[in-house]
Amino acid sequence: xxxxxxxxxVVISALAGMILIPGSAVPVKAAEEPEQGQSFLPAAGxxxxxxxxxxxxxxxNINLYLVPTEEGEYLNMAFSNTGDFTYIxxxxxxxxxxxxxxxxxxxxxxxxxxxxxxxxxxxxAEGYVPSDTLITGREAxxxxxxxxxxxxxxxxxxxxxxxxxxxxxxxxxxxxxNEEYEVTGEPVDGWYPVxxxxxxxxxxxxxxxxxxxxxxxxxxxxEETRIAEEKEREExxxxxxxxxxxxxxxxxxxxxxxxxGNPYVWGGTSLTEGADCSGFVQSVYAHFxxxxxxxxxxxxxxxxxxxxxxxxxxxxxxxxxxxxxxxxDGNIVxxxxxxxxxxxxxxxxxxxxxxRRVI
Length: 359
Known about the structure:
The chain is an alpha+beta fold. The protein has helices at about 45-55, 60-65, 135-145, 220-255, 275-285; strands at about 5-10, 20, 25, 75-80, 85-90, 100-105, 105-115, 115-120, 125-130, 135, 150-155, 160, 170-175, 180-185, 190-195, 200-205, 210-215, 220, 270, 275, 305, 315-320, 320-330, 330-335, 340-345, 355.
């Protein structure tokens, strides 16, 4: 699936000599070997450690707790091992309500291990997922790079994006301070390959800060909000596209109306010397670089069909043996006949066979 869900930056600190368990922090010597007969664990003893684990409701976490410190920051970090997503549930059971989704590229913080379930926090989503949908411990450390998102943040007021490394390379576009962009490969000679919209280019490492981020899951409410916003954007784009179609069609009508009063000539295609109905429509659209079939019969397959109630200026209105250009307000401009020449009449003067939109 596309990476549409939430992303957050994380600052990872490796605390040498300290192992973290929710609700506790127990210092352990990282570099020294225990003396003969001396316990590796703090003076409190293994009993105190076990008791603390029980008190924090991580009874099955003792193996994680005893992982060597070389695991570093990955002690409590996990990565998803699932298809598109797995549900984050309110309780460690399959029939409990889902409160969020953990996606295929997500990172998470491990809060507790239970019988076949793991409590996690990914972004703001917190709950339980089946343990087999996670990568944890040593494997998480080894595979972390697979889940990293590399970005750069612009530190200069304005920064050139070039088509190669070095200031001699051509400038493709410019980006502004604090803007962030995806790094698409390895840096070369201090230059980072980045993607800016549809442009692939290079920026100087002197004027950016490289950062690593992870993708996270999202709550049920966040997903609903995101889907609603995506739908709203799609509808806005559709409205914008429709709004752009109308002026284009109106331009066709404005051009066609310049020839009102010119003669009708059977078989003609000249807008000034004379044209028949299909020759008139074909020549008008040819002015805009759009090729249409020569006959009104063949024009029935041009573009795509819309209903008469959806007709917009510039649409072709086709009848039995005739064609005209819809003007709006129920009228067409067309090459009518030898007596009337090119003129305007009602679009409903006879039965309509089809309405075709070609722009």
